[in-house]
Amino acid sequence: MNYGYVRVAAATLELRVGDCGFNAKTIIETLKEAAGHGAEIIVFPELCVTGYTCGDLFLQESLLRDATDALGMIAEAAAGLNLLTVVGLPYAVDGKLFNCAAVIYEGVVLGLIPKTYLPNYSEFYEARHFIPGPSPECSFTAKTPSGQALFSSATRFQFDDLPEMILSVEICEDLWAVIPPSSQHVQAGATVIANLSASNEITGKDDYRRSLVTGQSASGICAYIYACAGEDESTTDLVFGAHNIIAENGRILAESPRFKNGVTYADIDVRYLSGERRKNTTFRHNMDHYATVTVNRSAYPAKSHTNLLRRVDPAPFAPSDPAARAKRCEEILTLQALGLKKRLKHLNMSNVALGISGGLDSTLALLVCAKAFDLLKLPRSGIHCITMPCFGTSSRTYENAGKLSRLVGGTLREVPIAAAVNQHFSDIGHDPAIHDLTYENSQARERTQVLMDISSQVHGLVVGTGDLSELALGFATYNGDHMSMYGVNASVPKTLIRYLIAYVADTCGSKDLTDVLYAILDTPVSPELLPPEDGVISQKTENILGPYEAHDFFLYHMMRLGFPPEKILYLAKIAFEDRYTEAELTNWLIVFYKRFFANQFKRSCLPDGPKVGSVALSPRGDWRMPSDASVDMWLRGVNLSF
Question: Looking at the structure, do residues 258 and 373 belong to the same domain, yes or no?
């Protein structure tokens, strides 16, 4: 199973200007090489059959005849390769010369795509030789070496075995136009755009080219294969850099080094792109005037890429680049603080109450409160840090909670709850020696009662500490830590919380605060509801649920990308190849789905909280799901994936 991945290539080949036979030979060699690498689509540069820099030689009948013959050679050689090929050449139709892309599959020229916009300024003078392609309404057929082929820019090439894979073509300057043809192509359903280019190099042009390709792939929610002319073009006036780019929805998947001919490969995900379009209600489809050419691949077995040519990030919620991650952390902390600032300002409150446990979530919530109070120019003493030790509290977390509260400048208050919880056990007839769910949840609900009542005492707001990962897994006590008056961490997953705290530790400028923050980061994640063993935390969340990094990975790919369980498991195997076994990942994904579906009722009544990323579970915006939906179909997907 290929899960919607299609291996594509952008190729810049060795050529001789004006020598179509030589160029056809190198194209054919490259086709065979690409097929050997499992490529399913390959795109070559603009006018690569002749060379872009032929000048007035384009008006010579000999060159045009040789170019057509070369097209026939390339088409014939493509038979048996199961490789959709796009090459550029000059092509005469009805006495007029067009700058064209020929789309070839299995010995047949499926279509000719004429260039729409011809640059005729500065170093470009294409209108001297070519005429623009006809409007999409005027499509017709043209004779090719393999028979009649559709001649139109309004053409879609669709794989019969993967209907989400729809290719359309534009040529170089078309991308630079105010309204590029690819904008119409994607509205007609194209998920992949091929651009055959001969963009010359001048200082800084690579950055502009890169921004155009990524921007167009983002606005079109498509993949973009950009193949550019290289060093063997004539240097009479220009130099070409072989700058090949493969992008997907605003992100570069692969890029060639400039000034070096070669082939650039990447695996694009057309099912992901189709899923993104389904979610985007402003994405409009308009297939007027477009013809669909079916690429019949059924005779070949589907290609399955075990060596996926794209990075699968094990931590998708946090950028891997340290500078980008630091920027993201600062932005998220600001969003969280601004959300709380607005709520406090609206309620005219200068006090908050939050439970401080010495764990990750309450630490981040306290840091956000401090930032919000600074923005409001309120004294941090209005941050009431309530530590509520009970049966499971360890000396390690107890001491860290106190140190952190004092260093941040909050008002620390200790309210032991063991006596109150034991009284509650007596009231309801529960044996405290039985460490079951009642034993655990009673502590969580008692803590919430304490926080609510203290907030009333100080005329303040209870700030919730629970995070996105816990909400997804339902790992929160209903009407206990599940409840607050404003949940600042509601859309921040556990893996990202670690990065946020580390960012503050590294930038706060206080050695004491840095030390305690790193001590908290080194503490196992635990609700601390069961008694410690020899003073050490006995209840470790990740021993119960599985690692949060795996669950956050599942959450991102299910909610943000809408992937089915079998694809999520396939990607998880790649992302965590050196860390977890296939059996472990399978078991944890089953845990994830069971808990996610069983605990929707907790998410249906969440307190307010700021959305800071692309994944959130607020029932008021991002996630509306019946609380009694069946999980069976998703579990079948997990079990059938291997």
Answer: no
